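Subject: mismatched residue count in predicted assembly?

I count 667 residues in my input, but I want to confirm that the predicted structure covers every chain. Input:
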Amino acid sequence: MSDLSHDSEAKDDVVSEVKISKKWFEVFVYIVLFLVNAFYFKESLGLPGSPRGIGAGGFPFLVSLIIGASLIALLGVSLVAPRKGEVEPFIAVRRPVQVVSVIVVMLAMVLSLPWTGPLVGIALLSLLVMWLGGERRYLLLLGLPPLLSVGIYVLFVLVLGVYFD
Amino acid sequence: MIDNLLIGLDAFANPMVPLGLVAGALIGYLIGAIPGLGPSLGIALMIPFTYGMDPIVSIVMLVSLFAAAEYGGAISGILLNSPGTAAAVATAWDGYPLTKQGKTGIALNISIISSGVGIFASAVLLFLTAVPLSEYALNFGPTAYFALALLGLSLVSSLSSGSLLKGALAMGIGLALATIGLDTQTGVPRFSYHADFFEGLPLVPALLGLFALSEVLYMIEAGASHKTKNQPMSGILAVPFKTFYKMKTLFLRSSLIGYFVGVIPGAGASVGSFVSYAVAKRFSKNPELFGKGSYEGIAASETANNASVSGSLAPMLALGIPGSATTAIMIGALMIHGIQPGPLLFTTNPQIPYTVFVSLWISVPIMVFIGLAGARFWAKVADIPRPAIAAIVASISLIGAYASESSMFPVYVALAFGVIGYVLRKANIPLAPVILALVLGDMLETNLRRALSMSNGDVMTFVTNPLSATLLAVAVLSFALPALGAFRNKIKGFRRQRPIVR
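Triage response: the counts match. Full output below for your records.
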């Protein structure tokens, strides 16, 4: 009989790891945020002002300046600051295929929810998330999803009166 | 005041209120005992279940969940040296060595009783400070409120992460997100390119995405977990009363430290427990035992981290300013029920704050009982397979987001914020300031505009008011002092690295 209290038998098929330079990952994130902020800044300038104090665009304008200043400083720190040690720090993403797959599964579940309904949607989502999370025991893979589905349905709909139209 | 306390006590005549307290305590223990999950994620996950509840029942459930998660965080720290919450790290320093000595039961007993003492004492402090604070805050004008909100944000941003700039960036991101939607004063649509955005970003789905779905992705990264060794629980009910009586001064001191550190926005339970632990070691007759299985070490850490729960509720209830991500999420939960925390809450809806005070006191024996009676069960909770937890969290988050408005838009928001939260965490950008700014953004902007409008656009109005000037000065210092410290350290490091030429 399968022991559900632990994962001693739950082994991943593939445990891979992607290492990205911390410096260049952060620079990439800052540049993306900088571009989004530039758009936010431009849009805030187009919002109406006020003769007394600041109007609808004043606060977003100030916020975009805070974000812009922080990003410029962070980019400066990332690009100009000297490296402390010999080994360059990195960001590790373990099991990247599974992480991306879970995002895709969640998106697919969300898009198909109007057709599948919450009961089937939750069951499918939990089954796939568990499988992608490395769970390989059939009893757990096939037992938890329907229980979770029914549990959430009972709690939301029957106990708390939240309806899924 | 006593009349209002009786109103709070009267709320417990509704059987759903004590039921909510017990449910919150059980869920809190469960969440706290699982390493990686914490009170913020627990409360975010529970919000969808409160949609159909009475506001009193939901706030009592969330407060007891918050407290119980801090209780539960110590369990995996003591058993596995893997604390369920950051606030239980100091507990593990002495709890785990006791486990290795075969004294798991004693360590758990001391941790649970100390947690109860911390909650009880700090709830008294909360009652004594929050009520006068709310009465004082009734006199605040828009300048003071703007300064107060800014102070809360800057403290959280400067304390929540190693990098001050990343804290400021996170705060900016949260404030920018808060400006999406129709402008509350003029009705002009801002950054709203679809009608769904007119009411602003839905808060609960954003919280679920940032905290819960990003954690799901981290769990997927970690893969399947492995079973831990079961520990014998001998001695859990055999700790003599005199052991606790000897620590009475420590309990009082740690409760005070935990409470007042908890009041400071951004400091939170973990800072409280570390400070309390260090002070306890300083005053202990046996400081050499700290780190090797000291009863005082566990008591100091657990008393303080639970006392900080009440501490963090003080600015939330009295001023409407959340001091941590957890209380920001709680404000979101209250807003769903149309309740705005702040000084007016004590006059317009006194049942809410006074029921919170009473529920904290009533929760103590319940949580101690649940903790001691269920010790074996809580010890096994850490063994729940990680992929199963990920599946449960993902399902509740997405369905909870859908249930918030019975439409698909919040689900898309939750999913988008899940990915954004994951990327921000990978880039070491803290999430707490994002959430705090998202919650406080509207209050900050409204009071800024109101103050400037009243002064005909004169920004000196913030400096001429002594209260707002003081608060703004502290806000500036909270950023400037750590920045100066970091700069000085860099200069020192540069001088050390420079070769000495003779």
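Chain B is about 75% helix and 0% strand. Marking this ticket as 'not a bug'.
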